[in-house]
Amino acid sequence: MDPYEIEFIGENRIVSIIPNFSYDKIFLISGEFGPFRAGLPMNVPLWLAVMLKQKQKCRLVPPDWMDMDVLENIKEEEKLSRFFTKMPNEHYMVEAKLILGAASEDIPRAAEIKTIIKDIWDIRMSKLRTSMDALMKSGGSYGRLDHLTMMEINSVKPLLPQAMDELHRMKMMTRKSTPATLNTSTFSQSGSSQNI
Amino acid sequence: MANYLSISDILVTNEKVPCKFLHDLPKMGFLDPSAADDDLKAGTNVEIPLWLAESLYTRRPPLVGVDLPKIYKETYREILNADACTVDMHKLGQHFYELGCYIAKHDIKGEVATTLVNTFRQRFRMILSASVSTDSISSFQPLSASERDRTAAAVITEAALSGWLKRGDCPITTANMVANHRKRKRAEMEML
């Protein structure tokens, strides 16, 4: 999966905005939103919020978790815990990137928030890599990776399942010591067709 | 895995393994390039491809006894158990793991299997570091064929992820599927 596809999925989350125009209810495929009243906060999907912001028709309200203290807490927890801690949001990276990209002036202390989210991301990615390596070295059959967001899972997508597959296959093939495969005629043409 | 039509399987079973013939085989002297006469005596050591060895081995009574190739023998097993990451797998055997799976069935002591699994586990770390390194040519060099495939896939994913992180907005490009589809249509129309 492309990171852009995950971004697309993450854009569907609801954020709150304060529009500066008035309009009736709009009826979208995913649901109805509205009516828009200038100055009153309301909930819309993230993609709609970013689009309105780029047309300068609204002001974004930062989500609850995008606050310095909350993020500091999360970062401390992440550093101390050996496993992965629960993130405030399934798609925190996607939301952070989009909101901070389009509406950084609406968020207080945006630069610091950017740095701290990047720190959390780096900690989790490096934890992920070391735990992948430990997983392969220890047994390669079962590992515990809870509270991972979609983007992080996607980063190991082709490698980890394929490697575990290969390992499993090798264990299976070498365990079955075929003692006496008589003329069961699975080897009709070439000896390589030992279908396991 | 052992698909009759799978290209990698065909390549793997084409590797030569040393075998010892257990019976006399008349008129098969051409298999041994160093033999003088037409018949193949029992007890000669010949290197034949794996597919031939397997089919000769599974007859009743077995016509050959399969030995382990050099890289699966004691000395190399020691080296691999000590430190698998320093070994240049491309030089030793490009299809190390796949061939090892076939060979392990002929091994009496069963140590080849454990060596295979251990080597795989240790080299996983190498794949991880190769996927994020910038110097792709030298980091791909010591990997076997299957390891290279996996690393190439991981490199693509890493590049996509870091590209997404850097860029601000998503540039809308045509999907690969659609672009190829159009090309095929255009080619068809030109042919008509």
From TrEMBL, chain A:
Keyword Signal: no
Organism: Pararge aegeria aegeria
Protein name, UniProt field: DNA replication complex GINS protein PSF2
GO biological process: DNA replication; double-strand break repair via break-induced replication
Domain named DNA replication complex GINS protein PSF2 N-terminal: residues: 2-61
Recorded GO CC terms: CMG complex; GINS complex
Stored Gene3D superfamilies: 1.20.58.1020, 3.40.5.50
Main location as per UniProt: nucleus
Domain GINS subunit: 65-169
Keywords linked to the UniProt accession: DNA replication, Nucleus
Top-rank lineage group of the source organism: Eukaryota
Family: Belongs to the GINS2/PSF2 family.
A Pfam entry, by short name: Sld5
Location(s) in or outside the cell: Nucleus
Subunit structure: Component of the GINS complex.
InterPro entries: GINS_A, GINS_bundle-like_dom_sf, GINS_Psf2, PSF2_N
Region of interest (Disordered), residue spans: 175-196
UniProtKB/TrEMBL annotation, chain B:
Endoplasmic reticulum recorded as keyword: no
Pfam families: PSF3_N (PF22466), Sld5 (PF05916)
GO biological process: mitotic DNA replication initiation
InterPro entries linked: GINS_A, GINS_bundle-like_dom_sf, GINS_Psf3, GINS_Psf3_sf, PSF3_N
This protein's GO CC annotations: GINS complex
Domain DNA replication complex GINS protein PSF3 N-terminal: 6-57
Keywords: DNA replication, Nucleus
Compartment list: Nucleus
Presence of keyword Lipoprotein: no
Ranges of residues in domain GINS subunit: 73-148
Subunit structure: Component of the GINS complex.
PANTHER family, per the entry: DNA REPLICATION COMPLEX GINS PROTEIN PSF3
Function: The GINS complex plays an essential role in the initiation of DNA replication.
Family of this protein: Belongs to the GINS3/PSF3 family.
Name recorded for this polypeptide: DNA replication complex GINS protein PSF3
Lineage of producing organism: Eukaryota, Metazoa, Ecdysozoa, Arthropoda, Hexapoda
